[in-house]
């Protein structure tokens, strides 16, 4: 139990108790203050490996990730409602306090993806866990993948209705962005249509569920298609589930990037391998290539170049 004496564990535990006692996780002064404190505490580089903490701390961490996800969903619905009241919601995205974070993360993800995709931008992508405010898809579609078709999946019908309203008035995006109310575990043959699939950080709130989703994607995606997975590293694992390269069975891991500054999520990109059904049924584990814990030199350069003063910065838990 000595691990409980770790200063960051103690501080996270105190914030967790305060968050747990909140009557509501909807945006408010108290909610915003506590989650800001949590992010500021977990973002700086730290040698801690949250996956190896004591069982009782792991339980607290899993509950905290669930609370973070719930609060984030409520915040997104709050701002999606406000944005939906405008005639041109896409012209007003900057009212969302953390819009610049999505610009930076989507830029990072696109630059990493483009290194491994021959033509630079996929023709059609799937985004799993898009939510009511699908800012990653919107940023990618507007700034980087300007001809790509996006199929966004979320199990929340209300979230998809809200998301659809955001792009309805835009002649271009309304023809390229679609929203499907489906559990991705029930989507099979359609997954073969995608050149790339993005898996949001909060799809699969624990290790077992996350691996199930990844295995499902490995079974049904087209060989050669790319998978972009968001994870967390170090103390940031108190905010989001941690995905290891070895969890991507059926994929060749091409790149792992653990930003150490403002972008909270880690990013992994992998290519679907050609395997037969017998291999999948026996859950054959494919060894991932050995990768550094931070960005490769090229990716680290992209990350630094992406931190421009043009967009500014505010902390956020990115979906």
Automatic annotation (TrEMBL):
User: Which residue ranges run through the membrane?
Assistant: none
Pfam family membership, one: NAS
Q: What is this protein called?
A: Nicotianamine synthase
Q: Which reaction does it catalyse?
A: 3 S-adenosyl-L-methionine = nicotianamine + 3 S-methyl-5'-thioadenosine + 3 H(+)
Enzyme Commission numbers on file: 2.5.1.43
> Where on the tree of life does the source sit, at the highest rank?
Eukaryota
GO BP, one annotated term:
nicotianamine biosynthetic process
Q: What family does this chain come from, according to its entry?
A: Belongs to the nicotianamine synthase (NAS)-like family.
Q: Please report the organism this UniProt entry assigns to the protein.
A: Lithospermum erythrorhizon (Purple gromwell)
Which Gene3D superfamilies does this one have? Vaccinia Virus protein VP39 (3.40.50.150)
One GO MF term attached to the UniProt entry: nicotianamine synthase activity
Q: What class of enzyme is it?
A: transferase
Tell me the function of this protein: Synthesizes nicotianamine, a polyamine which serves as a sensor for the physiological iron status within the plant, and/or might be involved in the transport of iron.
Provide the alphabetized UniProt keywords.
S-adenosyl-L-methionine, Transferase
């Amino acid at each position: 139990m000595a691990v409980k004496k770790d200063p960051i564990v103690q501080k996270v535990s105190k914030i967790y108790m305060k968050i747990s006692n909140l009557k509501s996780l909807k945006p408010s002064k108290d909610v915003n203050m506590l989650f800001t404190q949590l992010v500021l505490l977990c973002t700086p580089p730290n040698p801690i490996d949250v996956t190896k903490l004591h069982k009782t701390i792991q339980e607290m961490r899993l509950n905290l990730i669930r609370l973070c996800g719930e609060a984030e969903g409520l915040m997104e619905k709050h701002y999606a409602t406000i944005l939906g009241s405008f005639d041109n919601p896409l012209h007003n995205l900057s009212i969302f306090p953390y819009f610049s974070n999505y610009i930076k993360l989507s830029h990072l993800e696109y630059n990493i993806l483009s290194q491994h995709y021959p033509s630079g931008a996929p023709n059609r992508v799937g985004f799993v866990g898009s939510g009511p405010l699908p800012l990653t898809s919107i940023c990618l579609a507007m700034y980087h993948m300007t001809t790509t078709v996006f199929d966004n999946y979320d199990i929340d019908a209300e979230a998809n209705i809200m998301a659809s309203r955001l792009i309805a008035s835009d002649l271009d995006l309304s023809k390229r962005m679609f929203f499907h109310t489906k559990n991705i575990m029930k989507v099979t043959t359609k997954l073969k249509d995608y050149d790339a699939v993005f898996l949001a950080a909060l799809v699969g709130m624990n290790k077992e569920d996350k691996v199930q989703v990844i295995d499902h994607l490995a079974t049904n995606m087209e060989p050669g298609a790319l998978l972009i997975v968001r994870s967390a590293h170090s103390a940031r694992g108190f905010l989001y589930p941690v995905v290891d390269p070895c969890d991507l069975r059926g994929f060749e891991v091409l790149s792992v990037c653990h930003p150490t500054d403002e972008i909270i999520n880690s990013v992994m990109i992998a290519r679907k391998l050609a395997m037969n059904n017998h291999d999948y049924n026996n859950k054959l584990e494919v060894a991932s290539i050995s990768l550094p814990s931070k960005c490769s030199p090229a990716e680290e350069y992209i990350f630094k170049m992406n931190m421009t003063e043009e967009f500014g910065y505010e902390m956020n838990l990115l979906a």
